[in-house]
Amino acid sequence: MDFSFDADQLAFRDSVLRFAKAELNDDVIQRDRSAQFDAQAFKKCAEFGIQGLPIPTEYGGSAADPMTVVVAMEALGYACRDNGLLFSINAQMWSFELPLLEFGSEEQKKKYLPPLCRGDMVAVHAMTEPESGSDAFSLRTQVQRKGDRYLLNGTKMFITNAPIADAILVFATSDRQKGPAAISAFIVEKGTPGLVTTHHLDKMGLRTSPMAEVVLQDCEIPLENLVGAEGAGSAIFTSSMAWERGAILASYLGTMQHQIETCVKYARERKQFGRPIGRFQAVAHRIANMKVRLEAARSLVYRIAWLKQQGKSAVLDAAIAKVFVSENLIQSCLDAVQIHGGYGYMADFGIERDLRDSISSTIYSGTSEIQRNIIAAMLGLPKVE
Question: What pLDDT score was predicted for residue 249?
């Protein structure tokens, strides 16, 4: 495996860094406090080409290879301090754009992918429900065939981008007794009668990424809004998670790199007992451990990109990376707060915001417990309960 970058990738990374530093960091502290999504920054990212990175040129993207995509997302995580904005972008790319690209009809691709790449639309998928999170395939949202229409009824919970979404990829079952085999995926557009986005959900972190409950009440959609075949929902979801669990973590590599540089600078300048705190072993070792975590995490994430580029399965590797990167991200955020002491606890310095934003990383896209179950199963162990 060769994770070195060619000249074009390095140049593109530098352009992403310059763009993000110049365009994506306005009023982050205030927007975090007020839980305000930055629609203008989202549009700027699309115009720069972020949302279209993995999408073929015929659908408005740039057809970037997986390694280049990861390079770009890591650079965004480093230079953009708005983790919520990046989370919303990732949610659209991996839970709607890629499933549509892999499973959608030609008509669906031509209709939705170009405006998504341009930033003229926002989209996401809706799988999680009030009573089915980790046990995703036990969902209760029902679909019935009704002539030339599908009828959807159910409730989805914790749906990122829901308050601003122009299209939602909704997963529903035609028969709960049949389990995953009866699950299908459907595109539901904003304004469809019966689609209701309820109250905004107030979160601990990633506050600039909007989230809400989605209710479907006798929601009728045309047959052409089915993505893939009937019963293909579990395959669509599994495929999108393999992408999401790897690519969404790339942004956090940039966050971890930024934290290390911030902590090194502070440890060199901050003095206690007449000397820089970086001379104290307790501080120096924390920063050294942050570097160890970053390099190990980077290897895992880039391995997923390499496997994808080779056309190989990355399900096991994505589960491993999801556990390791998310849990070590949180530990590095805790270390950064500890190194900065009282200043790390203050909102104006942004250190505590990274910590709040990191907590959910062990929950979304499959909890750490679910990832360990996947790893155990793929090692050939008996089914874990």
Answer: 87
| Claim to verify: residue 251 and residue 351 sit in the same structural domain | yes
- Among residues 185, 214, 230, the one where a domain terminates is 230
Q: What's the rounded Cα separation, in Å, for the pair 49 and 208?
A: 21
- Return the CATH number at 191: 2.40.110.10
User: Is 224 part of the annotated catalytic residue set?
Assistant: no
Residue 87: phi and psi, rounded to 5, are: -65, -40
20, two tokens: 């993000």
Helix and strand numbers (H, E) in the chain are 12, 10
Catalytic residue (choose from 129, 213, 244, 352):
244
Closest CA to 314 of 325, 329, 304: 304
Residues 59 and 186 in one domain: no
User: pLDDT tens digit string along 9-23?
Assistant: 999 999 999 999 999
Domain holding 110, by residue range, is 7-122
**How confident is the model at residue 138, as a pLDDT?**
87
pTM of the model: 0.95
Q: Who contacts 46 (Cβ-Cβ below 8 Å, separation ≥6)? A: 52, 117, 118, 119, 120
Longest dimension (CA), the chain: 80
Q: Cβ-count burial of 190 within 10 angstroms (0-12 exposed, 13-18 middle, 19+ buried)?
A: middle
The parts of the chain modelled with pLDDT lower than 70 are 1
Structural tokens at position 349? 């310095």
**With b meaning 16 or more CB within 10 Å and e meaning fewer, what string describes 334-357?**
ebbbebbeeebeeeebbbbbbbbb
Q: What is the spatial distance between Cα 226 and Cα 136, in angstroms, rounded to a whole number?
A: 19
Question: Which residue in 30, 24, 26, 61 sits closest to 42, CA to CA?
Answer: 24
Domain count of the fold of the chain: 3
